[in-house]
Design brief:
11 helices; about 350 residues; Rossmann fold; single chain; eight-stranded mixed sheet; alpha/beta; globular; about 40% helix
Amino acid sequence: MILSPRGLRAATSNVLQLALHGHVADLRPMPAETIGEGRGRPVYRYRPPEGVVPAGPPVLFVPPPAAPARCYDLRRGCSLAEHVVRAGRLSYLLDHGPIRSADRDLGVREQVRDVLPGAIRAVSRDAGGQPVQLVGWCLGGIFALLAAAADPGLPIASVAAIAVPVDARAVRLAVPPAAVPNPARRVAGVAGAVLRSYRMLTNLDNADFLQQIEAVDHFMHTMAAYPGQTARQIYRALLRDDALMRGGIVIGGRRVDLRAVRVPVLAIAGRGDALAPVRAVRPLVGLLGGAPQVRFEIVSGGHLGVLTGRSARTTTWRHLDRWLDEGTVRHGIRAQRGAATV
């Protein structure tokens, strides 16, 4: 690797940053305050930047259960939450928090009929009764759509479903780690570490690249395993039985079909997403026959990258900006900028 004088200065600066501080990424979460809690699942309102009075309709980020809510706030400079908040939108986050022993009975029914509806109502109340624009990634997007289908009376303005695999037949599930012989797992682990080190060394002059690797590592280290019952329910209902493609799933004794969704839906798929490939997300267009509008977009990126990768800033986020702006117009509200701080 031969660096230009400018590249050498940048690499030296990055190495010094790592040596002095142990990190290059700014992992501080966006400031937020709790507005409510349902079954131990807090809902946060993001604080607006100084000089901005945020406007609605409010945006609620819905992460998948057991995935860190930081998926929406990966790092400063590449945080979807930061981007949406700084655009002057009234923004909220449902945080499932760490997995506890009491969560072993928290299955699909509880998520769709209890946890998420409670969060939606709390956000709507806090926003003066405005309907809520849901943004859900992966299973968070599936639960957002199921909640909208299960209860048309919920104050939902729209759903943005990002990397949502509704057709399980199109998803190639990875082999569980326990099924791989120990020597093979060790070899794969060593190979991954070598590749990561090589990529870092060849990009020492690229601070944004180094920051992204560090932020993704931090995110992955905080991933938790699904509780047994939740994992079994999700696998059986959404994957093994391919229920979403076969007329919906039974929740609380009642079949919930995505055709019952009655709000506009934006669906985004990533070309490089192995967990939610384009062919697994595209069927949403046909399943949402009752929605007044369904928009389908394809962007670059893997499963996490499609949401908050470096390229997402000019692809997924732009599609989402336009979608949220249209939602604001639909409800006759215009964001206020440059007003007094609240």
